[in-house]
Amino acid sequence: xxxxxxxxxxxxxxxxxxxxxxxxxxxxxxxxxxxxxxxxxxxxxxxxxxxxxxxxxxxxxxxxxxxxxxxxxxxxxxxxxxxxxxxxx
Length: 89
Description:
Elements: E1 7-14, E2 17-25, E3 30-32, E4 35-36, H1 37-40, H2 44-56, E5 63-67, H3 74-85
Parallel strand pairs: 3-5
Antiparallel strand pairs: 1-2, 2-5, 3-4
Helix pairs in contact: 2-3
């Protein structure tokens, strides 16, 4: 992970829970619960949902994101990753 000087911290909230999502300029690596995006979300549709905002804003491959999610199903967690990482777009 790059030094803190280039890091952006965002927080996603749903109801009464909130979690930070450290974001830094980088190579586009996304880590979910200490696992790679491909490992944590094996379904193509979940990964496409997460990467869609980057494609739309033409920022794909420009940020490294580390996010922690819990509860709900795989689809709900994918939506949570999108919500938590979009604050800097």
